[in-house]
């Protein structure tokens, strides 16, 4: 029974390492939830870029196939001569010069985690502390029995 408590100390160290690693290690639950949040940001950015792409596609189609739209944009950007006549398209109003937003850059932030080396050192010192405590307890019992 004396040796069992020393084995228990080793298993406690393994358990401490496993629990801390699963919770706050590089591949733990906390890092996983942070990566899921970054994935949601990336998905939102992709959706925003898809909307911008759809709008630019509609503008491109209007400029390619609708002469009236092309004439209005040409006038706004100063490409029309003074002797040219344009027909105003109802519904466009006085639109500002077209500026297309290219979207924004979203980079994934690396998740914050406890380094694996720290977890190993912490569990090693926990085992060492338990071994010292159990050894001191056995030593005191040995001195008492003498």
Which keywords apply here?
146 residues, mainly alpha
Q: Which helices and strands appear, and what pairs or packs with what?
A:
Layout: H1 2-24, H2 29-65, H3 67-76, H4 116-145
Can you give a write-up of this model?
This protein has 146 residues and is mostly helical. It has 2 domains: 1-26 and 115-146; 28-102, no CATH class. Helices cover 68% and strands 0% of the residues. It contains 4 helices and no strands. The protein has helices at 2-24, 29-65, 67-76, 116-145. α2 packs across α3.
Percent of residues in beta strands: under 5%
Q: How many strands appear in the DSSP assignment?
A: 0
Low-confidence stretches are none
Radius of gyration: 35 Å
- H-E order: HHHH
What sort of overall outline do the alpha carbons produce when their principal axes are compared? rod-shaped
Number of structurally distinct domains = 2
Average pLDDT, all residues: 85
Largest sheet: none
Measured distance between first and last alpha carbons: 20 Å
Secondary structural class: mainly alpha
**How helical, in percent, are the residues?**
55-70%
Assembly status: single chain
């Amino acid at each position: 029974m004396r040796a069992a408590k020393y084995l228990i100390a080793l298993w406690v160290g393994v358990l401490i390492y496993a629990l801390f690693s699963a919770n706050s290690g590089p591949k733990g639950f906390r890092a996983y939830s942070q990566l899921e949040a970054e994935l949601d940001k990336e998905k939102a950015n992709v959706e925003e870029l898809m909307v911008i792409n759809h709008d630019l596609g509609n503008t491109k189609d209007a400029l390619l196939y609708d002469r009236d739209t092309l004439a209005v944009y040409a006038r706004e950007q100063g490409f029309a001569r003074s002797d040219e006549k344009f027909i105003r398209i109802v519904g466009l109003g006085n639109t500002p010069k077209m500026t297309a937003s290219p979207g924004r850059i979203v980079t994934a932030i690396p998740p914050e985690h406890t380094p694996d080396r720290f977890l190993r050192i912490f569990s090693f010192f926990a085992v060492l502390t338990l071994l010292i405590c159990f050894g001191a307890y056995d030593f005191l019992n040995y001195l008492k029995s003498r």
